[in-house]
Amino acid sequence: MTRSYSKTLTSYDLLKALAVILMIVDHVGHHFFPDEMWLRILGRLCVPMWFFLIGYARTDKVPRSFLAGGTIITASAIISGQYLFPLDILFTIAILRRMRSAIALRATEGPEKLRAWFLLLLFAAVPTGMVFEYGSMGMLFVLHGFIVRRREVLSGRLSDKHIALFTGFSYMTFGFQQGLMLPSLDGWQGAGLLAGLAGVGMMLHVFRPVEFPDLSRLVMLPGRALLAFTGRHTLFIYVAHILLFRGICMAIYPEKYIFLDWHIAPPGMVYLLMKKGIF
Q1: What are the CA-CA distances from residue 35 to residues 38, 81, 111, 208 (Å)?
Q2: Residue 279 has what pLDDT?
Q3: What does the pLDDT look like over 190-204, one tens digit per residue?
Q4: Is 201 left (phi over 0), alpha (psi -120 to 50) or beta?
Q5: Looking at residue 132, what DSSP letter applies?
């Protein structure tokens, strides 16, 4: 069945296009300018957007294309001499999408349940993050999307104060976690990361499905088509640009991207596991 798209630009198009742009900025930094921390900081701002949209969606069904895309990305990591774990974010998205309702319905039963799930997901972030990209931290943003979509239904169980506290702590703890994982992050860059995530959180908190016919008329055809394509073909863009970047890196950085010289996990993660006596 062919998916039917609106002829005008929508809030989904604009949000996904923004997320794609930030994602590509992040990956340009990762592959070609690893010392440019601002590129990585900007890229981190897209992460909550992807997980938020899982929670905001009306379905828990996982398209096979997610798993196929994740498998292709994993195969490219093996071919280009990268690491297997943590598994690609597409697998994280598939798992969290499948688990969304089971967790979200329980977590939103009341403020005590929401607080308990926040702590559980936070404490599970490190071990789950070693297996899947972003691990259980992603579920915090899934819950945010679930709550925003069903705000009126949940108003009798969760007050605005409880929702604001949950949202604020979710984005800030993610910011601190990512700040610790990024090398050579100075104070201004750390503050920029936290401020950016706060802005993203506030933007997503007021997200609604909206069509923009006036904007569609104002933006010239090439720009409108590019925005629509970027927002409506995110999976293809994600997989294609990762394959392209890794192919380029194998050509220009052969000492770092060695054919089939893959590893189980990044050296820092392996060291941590050995230190803890897991390996």
Answers
A1: 9, 21, 42, 37
A2: 39
A3: 999 999 999 999 999
A4: alpha
A5: B
